[in-house]
Amino acid sequence: MLINEVKEKLIAIVTKANYDDSKTERLVYSYDATPNFQSMPDAVVSPRNTEEVSQILKVCNQYKVPIVPRGSGTNLCAGTCPTEGGIVMLFKHMNKILEIDEENLTVTVQPGVITLDMIHAVEEKGLFYPPDPSSMKISTIGGNINENSGGLRGLKYGVTRDYVIALEVVLPNGDIIRTGGKLAKDVAGYDLTRLFVGSEGTLVVITEATLKLIPMPETKKTMLALYQDLSAAAKSVSAIIANKIIPTTLEFLDQPTLQVVEDFAKIGLPTDVKAVLLIEQDGPPEVVERDLTRIADICKQEQAVSIQIAASEAEAEALRTARRTALSAIARLKPTTILEDATVPRSEIANMVKAINEITDKYQLTICTFGHAGDGNLHPTCATDARNHEEMERVEKAFAEIFEHAIALGGTITGEHGVGAMKAPYLEWKLKEEGIAAMKAIKHGFDPNNIMNPGKVFAKDSKKRVVVTK
Q: Among 29, 117, 225, 232, which one is most buried in terms of CB atoms within 10 A?
């Protein structure tokens, strides 16, 4: 627990109503969406404005109290689990859309705004914010920025980092700074905006963000391509991109995923095929028609057994929703669900899918594979039971091999979930010792007392979490 002096100072800043160190409240914020990670914070604080955030950080820095900024807790790499105790900072009061600027095509928000609420607000103005993480109904913009969240539309439109053009942040010493602006160009100094996006709460606390918007697409259409061969489906992804077509969405679902999603959503998904590609294109009607015709031809050349076009927007939305519910559907299979992500160059998707299947068979596990195949990001998801220690050891070894294969194919250990605590032991595989040292230097420069989300990104014992079988 916090010493009384710290507790009194924090209460003086946020008031008693916004400070809670009861066991119940601490338990609620002791974990996020990551299985098998839990640690109790010492207290939970809810600042009402940027100045209060600044004052809280000054106190925490003075007394070297860890602080973990937290959105909705949908994190999948234990990034918001307070593994070293300290303070969990909530943004339930800082949840306003401050401005929608139709002249500059921007929206300015506080970190606690729910992603989908903001998307709906800008769409009412005929504008479009493309990043669409599967958790967007409950995730917050602050969380999206800290994790550099992606989504189904990432192939064509990019990820959160591509839309963050300005930030207000509080440094660990309490200083408030602003980066970027409503600018198309800005090369004045280091690009701190991009540095802070995806920094997982280890450098600063984000208190305001200005995001780029674009015009709404004129129209969109959705297609399902069905395959009886996994490799053919994966090769289709590479072939579509190689033909210089960039769909809005190009998602891959294998048969085990299809079966559990259909059992959950009951929308008529085919479950008698080995894989499907969910493909969407948007833009002017003539472009959408042309691209989907070409994509259908490519898929048929790559052995697709059937091509289906959604007959209505309602049907298309049902397909998108079904894809977004994949994790929830798989979670019904066993008590523990481990959703991972590994990313490879798009040309290596077929090899990565093959490797995942071989590793699944080798370790005799239940792994469903789906993901954003168009940008090389796959989500092998294991249904298991944390109480079965022998099986969990096999799960750990299997995922270590999956990450190893991804790196060998020119990929990375995470495309959108982040490093947090879950992937920290593997980060050195990707960056090598020199890369880790460079990142630690940046961390120390901003946060010499290591109060910002400590225990994340940098593992205490790199490369030794499991023994990898070559």
A: 225
Q: What is the token pair recorded at 377?
A: 């990001």
Identify whether the C-beta of residue 256 lies closer than 8 Å to the C-beta of residue 377.
no
Domains with residue ranges and CATH for the chain:
1-216 (3.30.465.10), 219-408 (3.40.462.10)
Residue where the block lists tokens 């929608």: 100
Three-class DSSP category at 220: strand
Give the contacts of 96 (CB within 8 A, at least 6 positions apart). 109, 110, 113
* Mean pLDDT across 282-289: 97
- Chain center to CA of 443: 21
Show the tokens assigned to 86: 């300290």
Closest CA to 211 of 133, 118, 112: 118
Residue type, 215: P
Of the candidates 242, 237, 212, 215, which has an alpha carbon nearest to the alpha carbon of residue 227? 237
Tokens at residue 345, please? 């160059």
Confidence of residue 461 (pLDDT cuts 50, 70, 90): low
312 class by beta-carbon count within 10 Å (0-12 exposed, 13-18 middle, 19+ buried): exposed
pLDDT digits (tens, 9 = 90+) for 130-142: 999 989 999 999 9
